[in-house]
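look at this one:
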Amino acid sequence: MTTHRAPKPAATPSQPVERALMAGLILAALAGVGWIAGMIYTVMGW
């Protein structure tokens, strides 16, 4: 009688997703900082 074993999850496919997610978060953080800097510049120029 054979036993069923679940396949081990591969670690490599998750790395590109994680890298893309980190890049997206970094770009979003930079966009937020740029937006805040632009708002401060706008208010200071008023």
User: Anything to note?
Assistant: The longest helix spans residues 14-45. The chain has a mean pLDDT of 86. The chain has one helix and no strands.
